[in-house]
Write a structure and sequence with these properties.
Blueprint lengths: L5 E2 L2 E5 L7 H15 L7 E6 L5 H14 L3 E7 L2 H10 L4 E5 L8 E7 L8 H11 L16 E3 L3 H10 L12 E5 L8 H8 L3 E5 L18 H10 L3 E5 L6 E4 L5 E2 L1 H14 L7 E5 L4 H9 L3 E5 L3 H11 L3 E3 L5 E3 L8 H15 L3 H4 L8 E7 L9 H13 L4 E7 L5 E8 L2 H25 L1
Parallel strand pairs: 3-4, 3-5, 4-7, 8-9, 8-10, 13-14
Antiparallel strand pairs: 1-2, 2-6, 5-6, 10-11, 11-12, 15-16, 17-19, 18-19
Helix pairs in contact: 1-2, 1-4, 5-6, 8-11, 13-14
């Protein structure tokens, strides 16, 4: 049965348009409370958020829903997604919530749910919650004497900062390093700079003045140019750009050259293997990771296991098959020895530890393989039926035939935005450009026909 609320990363959409309304948030909270009520103890839920204006609408709606079902609510204010997951486990809460649309612009928002173990919910559990939210819950409200209470956690920021700092090797500091930190005007605008500064770095901070509407706007991991320019301007050793909820990062070396998640994963995987800490015999990544990464790992006798796009699928495979390093080219880096989800700050510290231990500049430390030419384009869609069109399917089939033995093609609907992403990778840049443009033209042609027919 198709799901109407949950996508590949919780619920996400345009604010004040279904499903991202206060009414739906209220119902989802009530349904989730029913799903996670266990026994007679006082149940608790942790709610964190990023800096979007709509957080002021969704947080009270979720709080009211949980309280109406008898759960106590602990709010933390703006904190990264991995902080919400960590605090859910640390506080022995029954449920965790992150209000964020991650890398999307401020007009969107989202709701991510975590179980008591700090992991994102499975499709099956999300399906149950969605079904419950579609029922009449009036008869299942808590009695007046059993209503929950709400409280704000004053030391949440400090707890998370100490947690992140403790993942950095004992005996090392960041003294002598100058680091540019771009907080994307998002959830890490307070904690990000403090983590690096408290470990001894000289920190140049940008994207740390959120106003409710400037999250991810020309800054952060989705727009790292500002961070790259700042690295060169300030003569920094490295740059770190986080996204709106700080569960992913993009780096820049001392020359201002962009470093994506594939190079970061290559470094972290090799370091774990060299030090006997790697589990699973390799790395879990997605269909988007570069062939160069796969061949680099193969040269060391390590495997690259690919999953569908989405960090939750990476984490699911890691948990099922015993891997402890995974992630996405976009910068989600999952290090399960430290965290249950992607954490941009923890990943940055592991890179900085390698730089410190090897005493080599970022440009050398993070250039481990030559990536194959790769091109990705996103086409906005309306009805979402273009991938069933015969012309579109024919263009995809032709592209796949041309890439046999030379590269890869990925054409998929986004789970977080109304777009289709077309990616091609091969040893011939002109070929992949032609292939991607042809498929995109076919999709856009179908969308125009559908719009004209309405």
């Amino acid at each position: 049965m198709p799901r109407k609320l949950f996508g590949t990363d919780g619920i996400r959409g345009r604010t004040n348009v279904e499903p991202m309304t206060a009414e739906t948030a209220l119902k989802v909270a009530m349904a989730a409370a029913l799903q996670f009520r266990r026994g007679d103890h006082r149940h608790r839920v942790v709610i964190s958020k990023d800096t979007r204006l709509s957080g002021y609408m969704l947080e009270p709606a979720l709080t009211a829903g949980f309280i109406s079902m008898g759960l106590d609510v602990i709010t933390t204010g703006p904190l990264p997604t991995p902080a919400a997951a960590m605090l859910t486990r640390s506080l022995r809460a029954d449920l965790g919530v992150m209000i964020s649309a991650s890398h999307n612009m401020y007009e969107d928002n989202g709701i991510k749910l975590f179980g008591p173990d700090g992991y994102k919910l499975s499709d099956a559990v999300e399906g149950v919650i969605e079904s419950l939210a579609d029922t009449d819950l009036a008869g299942r409200l808590a009695a007046s004497s059993l209503l929950g209470r709400a409280a704000h956690m004053e030391d949440a920021t400090g707890r998370y900062i100490e947690y992140v700092k403790n993942t950095f090797p004992k005996g090392l500091t960041l003294e002598g390093l100058k680091i540019v930190v771009d907080c994307a005007n998002g959830a890490a605008y307070k904690v990000g700079p403090r983590v690096f500064a408290e470990l001894g770095a000289e920190v140049v901070t940008i994207g740390d003045a959120p106003d409710g509407k400037n999250i991810n706007a020309g800054c952060g991991a989705v727009a790292p140019d500002a961070m790259q320019d700042a690295v060169v301007l300030h003569g920094a050793d490295i740059g770190v750009a986080l996204d709106g909820d700080a569960d992913r990062l993009i780096l820049a070396d001392e020359r201002g050259r962009r470093i994506d998640g594939d190079q970061i994963m290559a470094l972290v995987t090799r370091d774990a293997a060299d030090n006997g800490r790697l589990k699973g015999g390799g790395l879990v990544a997605t269909l988007m990771s570069n062939l160069g990464l796969e061949r680099f790992l193969g040269s060391m006798g390590l495997q690259l296991v690919r999953t569908p796009v989405g960090d939750r699928y990476v984490v699911d495979h890691m948990r099922t098959h015993g891997f402890n390093v995974g992630g996405e080219q976009s910068g989600h880096i999952v290090l399960s020895d430290y965290s249950t989800t992607g954490d941009g700050l923890i990943a940055a510290l592991q890179v900085l530890a390698c730089i410190r231990q090897k005493d080599r500049p970022a440009s050398e430390t993070l250039s481990l393989f030559e990536p194959y030419p790769q091109l990705l384009k996103s086409i906005r869609i309306n009805g979402g039926l273009s991938l069933e069109d015969e012309t579109v399917r024919a263009s995809i089939a032709d592209a796949e035939a041309r890439l046999v033995g030379r590269g890869r093609l990925s054409v998929r609907k986004s789970g977080t935005e109304p777009v289709i992403r077309v990616m091609a990778e091969a040893d011939d840049e002109a070929l992949i450009r032609e292939i991607v443009d042809t498929i995109c033209d076919a999709i856009e042609g179908f969308e125009r026909q559908e719009a004209a027919a309405e």
